[in-house]
């Protein structure tokens, strides 16, 4: 006959196991749904609120699903979009700060990702840098060079990433030295003036298109 204390210990252990299992199941479900929702907002360029701390259960769920790194990238981008919306009239500092912060965070996060996901992060880095170059003043050329380097790194790291190649080509064309004939053509009535170098808005394509998270 088993001792009473042994039965009590086994019962407590069984209860703890049930609680842990339920917590992990809930965390996994929440991680999957949160990942899909952030991805949908990213693709629609929805301006979100800042990301919340996911907490241990959600992080465990992301680890089980193998999406922790990509989820961290999503949250970094979410904070970036939220920061761009936080504009103080008469100053661009909040936007500059949001860009600086996302560049730092993405640079740290990319090392923990797979090669294809690192390429996707590099695409986002390039887009953010190119977008911010318009208000960078004397740092405009440097930011454009960094954006080109990010797109080039993405295209080399993942040759199948069509968006990286497209953005690289578009930015190369936009920043190429203008010849006399092209300059005169741009001033011809009826001709559309070339826009500032900015390949596209910082949005993420679907996973099948090469740069989703």
Mean pLDDT: 82
Secondary-structure-derived class: mainly alpha
DSSP summary, beta strand count: 0
% residues in beta strands: under 5%
C-alpha termini separation: 56 Å
How would you summarize the topology of this molecule?
Layout: H1 4-44, H2 55-65, H3 68-85, H4 93-109, H5 115-132, H6 140-157, H7 162-175, H8 180-186
Helix pairs in contact: 1-2, 1-3, 3-4, 4-5, 5-6, 5-7, 6-7
What do these coordinates show?
Helix content is 68%, strand content 0%. It has 213 residues and is mainly α. It has one domain. α3 packs antiparallel against α4 (93-109). Residues 182-186, 188-196 and 202-212 have low confidence and may be disordered.
Main features:
single chain, 213 residues, mainly alpha, 8 helices, 68% helix, elongated, disordered C terminus
Short recap of the structure:
With 213 residues, the chain is an all-alpha fold. The protein is built from eight helices and no strands.
